[in-house]
Amino acid sequence: MDGCLLATVLTILPSILGAQCSADDSWSMKVQAEVRATEGYPVVLPCSFSHPNHTPHSSLLVAWRQGSTVLYHCITHAGSQACQPAPHQDPRYRLEGNPREHDLSLRINSVALQDGGRYYCRVEVPGHKHASYEDKMGTLLRVEAPPRILSLSLKGSEESGFSALCEVEGSPLPDIQWISPDQLLQGVEMGRPLGQGSASQHHTVSQLPDVHPGQQYTCSTSNPLGREQATLYVLSPKREACPAASSPPFLLLLWLSLGAKALLLGGVGVWAVQGRAPSGQL
Fold first, then answer.
1. 58: closest CA among 69, 49, 67?
2. Which of 176, 117, 175 is nearest to 143 (CA)?
3. 3-class state of residue 237 by DSSP
4. Radius of gyration of the chain (CA)
5. How confident is the model at residue 129 (pLDDT cuts 50, 70, 90)?
6. Does pTM surpass 0.70?
7. Is the alpha carbon torsion for 79, 84, 86, 88 positive or negative?
8. Bridge partners (DSSP) listed for residue 200
9. Per residue, what are the HEC states of the chain?
10. Whole-number Å distance between alpha carbons of 85 and 77
């Protein structure tokens, strides 16, 4: 019985392997493992395919996604060369290739840092069983950008002391240096700011403690694509005049005013007495 079971297994196994190979051989898709782009410029993600059931008269469904988000979707109808995009399609995305020629390459205009990630190309041939394919490895898009200073600010008070903050972005992630007119200063990396999602991987913040009024401090940031710097001028706080200092002149004016009124009243009284005296003598 063991011999019969072994013979049965050996008979079934080649048919299973043959079915898997046949299924794999029916599709062929070629993508680029990694593509690099510069922020603000267009980029093309290559993708081509072949399928034995695809003919020039077949309709095709084409889709590109990043993660679970479908970014581009179009369909070519029988007898048409154009691939009609889905309604409300983002105009930054368009099909660079011609699906009729087995080219599904995607063009992204004005690439941003947030566009970085892994993209997947998918094609379907309607009317054929299991006639769909998506490359499982995908294409990794790396977007590079020169450093940019997002903010340079001062925080603190005279009681607690002042510190300067410099927030920058770029890819690769930029380095930050603090410079005074006389020397390099030691800043403290505060890491990536919270609440910015995946974009935070391109942001970093540096803090410079012990900042003194009346001085200037320069934040300089750089990566292989360039350098940028900005200078913070810390002004000395204005001293407000003490309210007590204004009291003596006010009191002096008040006393002078009261004194003038007293003299005036005294003069009127004397005049009144002198004016009544002759009448009394009569």
1. 49
2. 117
3. coil
4. 41
5. low
6. no
7. negative
8. none
9. CHHHHHHHHHHHHHHHHHHHHHHHHCCEEEECCEEEEECCCCEEECEEEECCCCCCCCCEEEEEEECCEEEEEEEECCCCCCCEECCCCCCCEEECCCHHHCECCEEECCCCHHHCEEEEEEEECCCCCCCEEECCCCEEEEEEEEEEEEEEEEEEECCCEEEEEEEEEEECCCEEEEECCCCEECCEEEECCCCCHHHHHHEEEEEEEEECCCCEEEEEEEECCEEEEEEEECCCCCCCCCHHHHHHHHHHHHHHHHHHHHHHHHHHHHHHHHHHHHHHHC
10. 12
Which pair of structure tokens corresponds to residue 196?
A: 């910015």
| CA dist., res. 27 & res. 33, Å (int) | 18
Summarised one tens digit per residue, pLDDT across range 150-208 is 999 999 988 889 999 999 999 999 999 999 988 999 999 887 655 545 557 899 999 99
Contact between 74 and 54 under an 8 Å Cβ cutoff? The reply is no
* Sequence letter at residue 215: Q
- Give, in degrees to the nearest 5, the angle at Cα 156 between 153 and 162: 80
Which residue is associated with the tokens 């029988």?
Answer: 78
How far, in Å, CA of 76 to CA of 98, rounded? 10
**Would you state the structure tokens that stand for residue 145, as one six-digit string?**
């950008």
Spell out the residues 6+ positions from residue 133 whose beta carbon is closer than 8 angstroms to its own.
27, 29, 49, 51, 122, 123, 124
Q: Is 107 exposed, middle or buried (0-12, 13-18, 19+ CB in 10 A)?
A: middle
Dihedral of the alpha carbons of 140, 145, 150, 156, in degrees to the nearest 10: 80
Pairing between strand 34-38 and 139-157?
Answer: parallel
Q: Show Cβ contacts of residue 214 under 8 Å, excluding neighbours closer than 6 positions.
A: 234, 235, 236
